[in-house]
Structure prediction request, 313 residues.
Amino acid sequence: MSENPLASVVIPTINRPQLVVRAVRSALAQTLQSIEVIAVIDGPDEETKEALAALNESRLLVKPLFQSHGAAQARNTGVESACSRWIAFLDDDDEWLPAKLDIQLRAAQQSRFKDSIVACRFIKRSDTDDVLLPRRLPLPGEPMSEYLFRCTRLCGGEGLVQTSTIFTAKNVLQEVPFQAEAGRHDDLDWLLRATVREKRAVEFVPSLEPLAIWHRPGHLETMSSRKDWRFSLSWVQQNRHLMALRAYASFLLTWLSANAVKQGDRSAFWPLLRESFRHSVPSVLDLCVFAGIGLLPQGLRQWVASSAATASV
Prediction:
C-alpha cells in the first residue's frame, strides 16, 4: 500500500461477501491507482474476512469490528483509519466505473471550497432497467434540503446524492461524523449537517456521465428500501432546524406519504398534512402530489410519474 495515497475508499459491510468483493474490485480497478481501500466488517463475519483475504491485495485494509454498530459507525471507523486527505464512500452492494476517483479528485482540487464535497451522477440498476440519476443538479446557492426534498414536478424533486458518490475531505468527516442514531437516514442526516456548517455546498463533477452504479435489485433488502413513515417523521422533526421550510413540507407530503402508502398505513395522511401546515406553507404542487398519492392507485401513480419524467428528459 502507498504510504501517502491520494484517496482512501471506505466500504462498510456485513454478511455479503460476494457483493463486497465486487465493490472492492471496482475500487481497485480505478484509473487513480494511488489509493487505499478500507473494508470495515461491521461485526463477526468470517466468510467476508476470508473472501477479502483471498484478493491478496496490498492496497486493501480489512478492519473487522467485534460487534455490529451499523453502517454509520463503520464509516466513521474507516475515516479514522484513513491515511489520505480525501475520502470516498462505497456501499458494499454498489460499484464504480473506472474513472470515478480520478475525475472527483480533480474536481475537489479545483473547487472554490477548501474542503469540498464532490458528488457525481450514477446509474440506478434494477432487475428491469438502468436509470440515470439525478435528473437535475443543484442550482447555485440552493440549500441542500431543498435540492434533496423540495417537490419541483409531478415525479418529485429529482435531486439526489447517493452515498456511493460522495467524495470529500477527511477534515469534513472529522468535523461532521456520521451519526449512528440517525438510523436509516444517516446519509441524508450527514449531508444536511455537513452543508449547513460553514455554508459548504455539494458540487457535482463538471462531466455529466455516470461514474457509479447503484444496484437496486428487487430481491435485495437494504436499509434505504425499508419504509417506516413514523421513524422518518420523528427524524425530520428533530432535524427541522437543518431544513428550509419548503423542503420540510415537501418531505412530509411527498416522501412520507408515499412511504405510508407502501406500508399500507393511510392513517398517516392527516398527521402529515397537519404537521406540514404547522411549520410551513405547502406549495400547490406539494398538495397536488400529496392528493395523488392518497387517491390514485399505486400502479397508475407510478405510470404518471414515469410519463412526466420521460417528458422532462
